[in-house]
Amino acid sequence: MIVIYGIREYLNPIKPKLSDVIHSCMQSVLGMPEDKRAHRFIPLDAEDFYYPGGRTPAYTVIEINMMEGRTADTQKALIKALFQRIQAEIGISPVDVEITIKEQPAHCWGFRGMTGDEARDLKYSVNV
C-alpha cells in the first residue's frame, strides 16, 4: 500500500498522473502486476502540512508499505526511478519529494482472509 500526502491545491490536480507514475515504477522495478495498485491520497490543508525549509508548496510525501524481502539495491532503484519519473512527467523537483519505504515481515500483513506468509498465490515475487 502506498500513501501520498501533499497540500490539497497541489496534490488534487495531479493525483491520476502521479498514481500512474508511481505504479509504473512499481511495475518496472519490483515487477508488480497491473492490478496491484493500492494508493491512498491524503490531501491536506496548507495549515495542516508542515514541511522542511527550502521546499515549495508542491512538497509531496510518498510512503511505500511493503512486505520485506526486496534487496537494498532494488529499493534504491525504486526510489531513484520515482524521483526521476516524477520530475520528468509531473514536474515536481526531487527536492520537493520525500520517499520512505516501510517494510514489515509477511506475517504482519493481512489480506484476502490470510496473513502474507500464508499466501502462496502471489503473482509477483517479493524477493527481488
TrEMBL record:
Pfam families: Tautomerase_2
Organism per entry: Marinobacter xestospongiae
Alphabetized InterPro entries for the sequence: Tauto_MSAD, Tautomerase/MIF_sf
Entry-linked Gene3D superfamilies: Macrophage Migration Inhibitory Factor
Organism ancestry: Bacteria, Pseudomonadati, Pseudomonadota, Gammaproteobacteria, Pseudomonadales
Name assigned to this protein: Tautomerase family protein
Entry superkingdom: Bacteria
